[in-house]
Design brief:
The chain is mainly α. The protein contains four helices and four strands.
């Protein structure tokens, strides 16, 4: 048996062992909805995105309904810089004026959301991207400054 064959058999054994261990959890959570937060820092690496998409497809395959809530701080910051808009932070929160809000929406809804849907589709899953703005799904209130 070649080294490649041994590696393939070992990998298959590990995957089977992992699935066997996970079976009670798959049964317990089948039909459940999981909210999964994907941070913006995790979205800068294609390998991480591929693994994430594979995991979401796996969850759906075993009957769990994943709902992905994604961030995008680094991507928003990069676009603000590219467009010459300076960010201001107060107590760790980005101060979002009208221009910043428009750019954030463009990045989150127009770029990141679509990219994640694409990754999941490429992994064999089905996904729909929506914004918190769609249908009044998320309503926000202005945070008054605190120092």
């Amino acid at each position: 048996m070649s080294d490649n064959d041994m590696t393939s058999h070992a990998e298959a054994f590990l995957k089977a062992a992992t699935l066997t261990e996970a079976l009670p959890w798959m049964r317990r959570f089948q039909g459940s909805t999981f909210v999964v937060k994907l941070g913006g820092n995790a979205m800068v690496d294609d390998e991480l995105l591929q693994a994430f998409a594979d995991d979401m497809v796996f969850l759906a395959t075993v009957g769990v309904h994943p709902v992905v809530v994604h961030g995008g701080g680094p991507q928003i910051g990069a676009m603000l810089k590219k467009m010459g808009v300076e960010s201001t932070f107060v107590d760790g929160l980005r101060v979002t004026d009208k221009v910043t809000a428009e750019i954030a929406e463009m990045v989150l809804s127009g770029a990141i959301n679509k990219e994640l849907v694409s990754w999941i589709a490429q992994a064999g899953g089905r996904a729909v991207g929506i914004s918190g703005k769609d249908g009044g799904f998320v309503i926000a209130e202005k945070v008054e400054g605190s120092s």
